[in-house]
Amino acid sequence: MTYVFALPPQPTVPVAGGSDLFPVRRIFCVGRNYADHAREMGATDQADGREPPFFFMKPADALVSGTGELSIAYPPQTGNLHHEIELVAALAAGGADISVASALDCVFGYAVGLDLTRRDLQARAKEKGHPWDMGKGFDQSAVAGQIQPVAVCGHPSAGRIWLQVNGQTRQEGDLSGMSWNVAEIVANLSRLVRLAAGDLIYTGTPAGVGPLLPGDVLEAGVAGVGTLRARIV
Ligand code: MN
Predict the structure, then answer these.
(1) Angle at 86 (CA atoms; ends 81, 90), nearest 5 degrees
(2) pLDDT, tens digit, for every residue of 70-93?
(3) If you measure from the C-alpha of residue 202 to the centroid of ligand 1, how many angstroms do you get, rounded to a whole number?
(4) Engineering a disulfide at 20: which of 15, 106, 113, 140 sits with its beta carbon 3.0 to 4.6 angstroms away?
């Protein structure tokens, strides 16, 4: 048996501190996981900050990763490309119906990520009750810096998460502001799908999301995990 065309390239994220690569299987994202961002997006049902987590996906080949400054093409069909700085959990094991107590055992490491969003297309989809895919899952919409192994960074649950555009701070929050922590996210998601090694989970963004333009340079970081530099071209 032969394939009718060459196998597509395997998306990967570099692992910090060596030459290892983390092979990416799927990309899951959590919506509205910081109360301050939920408010800025107009959510009104956040009285206790614990609306059940909801998830969306990006294709694995939407990933932009590597070392050094990453280059991201301004996408088509939008006039309102937004940045969302996020902590990314990278799984080296999975399963279904994982308990909160054992969920962190699945995590290989953490990366700094950007959930790039065509906000105008997402807003139109919300209005019409349409899927978010074209607002969220377009080419080069999932950005990730190097993965810091848990052996080095542990499981960060507090610490600064920030993003600057052209040297100006746009987003600044703390991981402790997450409505659902990483263990709870993994446990919740594993009740919906069987998680597996290679899955990335973008864990939501704090307040301060805003537009990007060609030529913008982004610097972002998560305390204890690392930093990310990217340019919109
Ligand atoms: Mn997001």
Answers:
(1) 125
(2) 999 999 999 999 999 999 999 999
(3) 7
(4) 15
